[in-house]
Amino acid sequence: MSLHYLPAVKPSAIALGTIFNQTAELAVLTPLFGATYQRAKSSNSKEEFIKSKEATSTAVSLGSSLVGSALQSYGVGALINATGTLSYKGSAYLGALIFAATSAPGFLNDLIVEKRTLETVGVSVLAKLVETIGLSVFLTWWGTRTNPFEYPGTGRGTPLSRTSFRAE
């Protein structure tokens, strides 16, 4: 597989999307950071804290969360570029489709099979809606195309509808 098949996305869009996702994810990671902060206060030295289980799990969680947020930002930006989405309404629909494809089945499982409370699932749904729809709209506002003049106008179709055999 060659990398030239992957759509180009502005690096600043990926960086800002990562920050956007980390801000939304903060609600999920806050309990972990709280336990880490308490452990840091109760430890006698920095070395003891660094070797603790809480510090290790926090570092792993934060690292994987940053990588995951960057990949999600690239993926959403690439979809915006590949579909030729130019409006906020279109990006909100795209974000809703991403939510429906990736998160909705898990939340239905939480409610129906695992019988979790509506409040618990509701907070998770809200956070995931911000991560999908909010990220799509935010990236559309910021801009994801490395060359903004690459797809001028809506009358020429989307990048996915174009083929190398059709004259422009």
Q: List the uncertain runs.
A: 163-168
Distance between the termini: 27 Å
Our estimate of the beta-strand percent is under 5%
Globally, the shape reads globular
Number of helices: 6
Keywords: Membrane, Transmembrane, Transmembrane helix
Pfam families: DUF1761
Protein name: DUF1761-domain-containing protein
Give the tags.
6 helices; 70% helix; 168 residues; single chain; mainly alpha
Protein model, in words:
With 168 residues, the protein is mainly alpha-helical. It has one domain (9-149). It contains six helices and no strands. The two termini are 27 Å apart.
Q: What does the secondary structure layout of this molecule look like, with pairings?
A:
Elements: H1 11-42, H2 46-50, H3 53-83, H4 88-102, H5 104-112, H6 118-142
Helix pairs in contact: 1-3, 1-6, 3-6, 4-6, 5-6
Short description:
With 168 residues, the chain is an all-alpha fold.
